Amino acid sequence: KGKAKAQKGKKITLKIAKNSIRISFDGGRRLDLSKMGITTFPNCILKLDDVDELDLSRNMLKKIPSSIQKFQKLRWLDLHSNQLEELPAAIGTLQNLFYLNICNNKLTTKNLPEELNLLKNLHILNLGLNCLDSIPTSLGALKELKEIGLFDNALTSIPNSVKKLPNLKKLNAKRNPFPDSTNQEEPDDTVKRVKTLYLVQEKDLCSSCLKICQDEKDKLNKLKDVTPNPPKKPSFSLLLTPNSPAKDNQEEWRLK
C-alpha cells in the first residue's frame, strides 16, 4: 500500500495551491509547487491562471497538458528536474513568457514542439540535461533570446541560426559529443609555418644574416619574459550548474 501511495504522488488541492502563492521580488504573483512529489499536473491550479510565475520544478511530472495555455499572463515557467518526455504545442501560446527552464528532464529532439519558436519574448531558455541529439534551426526565430543552456545532451552541432542570434550573450553547451574539429570554429593562427627548416652554425653565417638571427632571438627572449593573463572563464549565472541537483534557492535563477 505504501508503495502504491508513493507512486500516486501528492494530491494538490486548490487550498494548498492558494497557500503556495508568493510575491516575487518584482511584485509578481508566483505559484510555487516545487519539491512536492507531484506526479500529475494538478488541474485545480487552472483556477489560478492569473499568476505571473509558475514553479513546478523538482517533481515527478511526465506530462504537461495543453491547458497550460490558460496561463496567458505567465512570464516565468520552471519545469526543471521532472520526468517530462514531451511538451505540448500549446506552450507556444504563452506569448509573455520571458523565462523557460525545462532542464533535467527526458526530452528528445523529436518531442520538442515546433511552437517553441513562437515565444518571441523569451530571454532565457534552459534545455540542458536532456536527451537532445540536435537543436531545431527554427529556434533561430527567438530574436530576444539572451541565454540558452544546451549542456549535457547528445548534440554534435549547433545550428548557426541559434549561435548567431542577435542578442545572445551566454550559450552553455558543455559535455556534448561535438567532433574535435568538424564544424568547430578554429582560432586564428598567428604563427607562420615553414615546410623545411635548415640548421647552420653561427660561424657559417654572413654578418648581416647573423645580425638578423640575433635580433629575432632577442625578440623571443622578450616574449618569454611576458606572462600572459589567464583566459577569463565564461559565467552562466542564470543557467543551472551542470551535473548538480537543482538549486534550492530559486532566486538564483532570476534575471537580476
From TrEMBL:
Alphabetic keyword roster: Leucine-rich repeat, Repeat
Domain Disease resistance R13L4/SHOC-2-like LRR: 68-203
Cellular component GO terms held in the UniProt record: cytoplasm
Keyword Repeat set for record: yes
One Pfam family linked to the record: LRR_14
PANTHER family attached to this UniProt entry: LEUCINE-RICH REPEAT-CONTAINING PROTEIN 18-LIKE, PTHR48051
Protein name, per record: LRC18 protein
Organism this protein belongs to: Atlantisia rogersi
Gene symbol of the encoding locus: Lrrc18
